[in-house]
Amino acid sequence: MHIKCKDVQSSTSVDLSKFGVVFCDSLQALEWAYNNGLPRSAVIKSSAPAVLLSNKKNIYNVESRWTSTELNKFQNSIPGMSKELFNAALGVTGIERELALSVSNFAYHFQKIIYKSSCLEEGDFNNPRLFIYTKGECGPAGNIMNSPWDKLIKPNALFSTVQYTLKNDKWSLLTTQGVSYWQRFKVAGYETIFYRLIIKIMKFLPDWMFAREVIMPNENELNIEIAYSLIFSRVKITEAKLETLPDSKNLYSDKNTVDLYKAIFPIMCKRIEEWVTPSAVEVTKMLFKSHFEKHIEKFNLLVDAWDRSIVSKDNIKQAVLVNAPGNIKGHSLSFICRKKDILLMSSQHGVTIEISKAHNILDIIFDNSVADVMFSYNSKIVDIEKKIYFNNARHHIVGMPMRLIRMKSAQTINRSTPSFVYISTNLYHMGFTEKAITDYEKAIFEKDIIIKVLSEIPHKVRYKTYPEDNRRYADEDPVLKNIRIADNIELFSNKIDMRYLISEHSVFITTGATSTLGWVVMSGKPVVFINQEHNSPLTKDAQISISNGIFVFNNNDKNFHKKLKDFLSQSVDDIERLWQKKKSAREEMIQNYFSEYKGGAGGRAAKIILKEYLN
Fold first, then answer.
1. pLDDT score for 412
2. pTM over the 0.85 mark
3. Best CA proximity match to 345, nearest among 379, 364, 317, 378
């Protein structure tokens, strides 16, 4: 007897036994389907590492058509597309820079849909297909655990969707629970505590007491330090809360929006037709149109919300200091700031652009494409940002905030924890990113590091998972099972930021040109960096400098795993002696690629603001 399930798409009964091909990214959901009639011989199309590593013969990697070569080709064509879209949008009568930039940014993110469409085959549009949609706790971004198969394969009359709700479902967010107040104070510093106290008091102080005001919609480490320094010059610091309403006035007329769509659609059509499976072309075009309309609607809503939140004052000089404005919130904020003649400032929020080879496809989302003024850690990032097509900012180099600088004072305080820690930056993305590697390949790389390196060295090692806020897949990362069976590896999966754990370890191992590297490098303790060829690799220049300053191993080198294992098999004392020999080169590396100055970033930026922008 076949058990029938309710189809959430058509509200009709679905006989699971009739499907020989199924799209599913959850082992739990798949087992539920088997228990409800799905043949165990059915081909399972998936991109989930847990499913693909389950060693079932009928599992098919839905992203197998994407080789590193193909991904590189796809990615390298994005900058040209972004420029073309921006210029086309800006050429439409009535469309201003902020919306043109936002639409180009939206088109960049739409590449995820194109990527997924390109994974489909012609048979997926004319043969029976089932999609098992997984529902569960997911984090602030909502449910991103499912590929958009329900939308992409919708034209197939033989396609059905069933929904499975995860059992015993738990999901946690980044926390400081378990971190002592003393440790939090050591990392945050007195500047942050004083800043938070003063802005609470400032809410009740009248404007006539101040000649200047800096409005802060959100924060990062450097912005807090800048605001702290500005307080001593009698600058009022005001938090800005963004509250959107369900309706808005039309910023752009229907004609403006129609003309804008007509201008950019041919550019996107060409790209869709180049990359997408023929039977998926039309539905992908329709999705682009619907996503475009939603983006315009959201932009209008956000403009209205910022208009209410950012209040211009005639008797006080104002500026906005924002974190990470390279998104639709930042674009709409920039629009309002320009209309109200209020300066928009931003600051660097991590070392990545200056060291990452992947930055060349991301220029449309750079902060300096939006902000009028940028405060940066070093000259290398400024050199890169000044050259991007969308550069809109005046740049000032002020150095790293004290939160990173003071990492050097974090000495080992807990001898009960392993001296060695592997800081995983393994974050799955459910498809296209700036990385020329699939989630499955990321899992294989991580698994090999655990089995061939970490579990083989004569030291206890802590494996620190990446504290992701937004759940990518329903199942636990499959590489963790390899940690649990290793005698010398301790799993640390609590969602605590690594900055609070630096004091507990002596040797750091990490991979990928991400901001994580900045925190451990500034600790002054030995850092072993794994440079992956297709996963956030270092730029050529950065690799030369960083290889001189810290220990770098390239995953495409011959006998890579053995070389890394042999190095990590040395004693901590031996590694620290080798580390000291790199001291001079490391100081030069830090100045060039991390922090131009050894402190005082907030005060330096505050002086610039007072002298050049709020004088």
1. 59
2. yes
3. 317
